[in-house]
Write a structure and sequence with these properties.
By secondary structure, the protein is α/β, with parallel strands linked by helices. The protein has ten helices and six strands. Helix content is 37%, strand content 16%.
């Protein structure tokens, strides 16, 4: 189990005004969170003051992450990959560009996201809760979950981590939001609209050990 950063290249490319989000007049934090947690249009393609403000495929944006994961985990044609919390599945689509011939699967709780996912791979996606993955034990050569598990309450997080461990073989990778100091904690609280689990890196590592998760991981910080 290693701490490996695959995500900073994307996370740090976004500019964030923390105070503007938390102090917005039209979408005060509680209202933005209420709308975002419906996981529908407002979350993905609504006003930027709620969440993404339009989550569209950008050529090359996720490909660099896919390529880094492929190279690190030695993914080859015929391997099976699962994305837990795939959203509109842009990363999964880019996996198919990097390694033609791989078998991809994605699950997400958002019916809206799956309905508006990349058409080329929509038949490989399902609306499913991360706490009950509909796959056999040790089925996937790589299981990933990026910016998803911190949205679960503790009782669901426990189950989801065990499910990821169950369906994966050796290679698994999780990325979650975290904080190392009070500044990052405040920024995380200001910016997030769906987070339910607020943990330091040590607390996340406790969760991994507690649930028997043996894969790799990294953290996103709001500096």
């Amino acid at each position: 189990m290693n701490n490996i950063d695959f995500m900073s290249v994307i996370h740090k490319s976004t500019q964030r005004d923390y105070l503007a989000r938390v102090n917005d007049v039209d979408f005060p934090k509680y209202k933005a969170a209420e709308l975002a947690k419906q996981w529908g249009h407002d979350y993905w393609d609504g006003d930027r003051r709620i969440c993404y403000g339009g989550y569209h495929y950008i050529e090359g944006r996720w490909e660099k992450v896919a390529r880094a994961l492929v190279e690190y985990y030695h993914i080859k044609p015929g391997d099976k990959i699962l994305d837990v919390g795939c959203g509109k599945a842009f990363l999964l689509y880019d996996f198919t560009k990097v390694v033609p011939g791989i078998e991809i699967h994605g699950i997400d709780l958002s019916e809206y996201a799956i309905a508006h996912a990349k058409e080329e791979i929509k038949d490989r996606l399902q609306v499913v809760n991360a706490t009950s993955l509909p796959y056999p034990d040790h089925y996937f050569d790589l299981v990933i979950s990026i910016n998803t598990l911190h949205n679960l309450h503790n009782y669901d997080l426990d189950v989801a981590l065990r499910e990821i461990e169950r369906v994966g073989k050796k290679n698994k990778y999780i990325c979650v939001e975290s904080y190392r100091n009070e500044i990052e904690k405040a920024n995380l609280l200001y910016w997030q609209v769906t987070c339910e689990t607020f943990c330091t890196p040590k607390e996340w590592e406790w969760w991994f050990k507690h649930t028997g998760y043996t894969g790799d991981y990294s953290f996103i910080y709001f500096e």
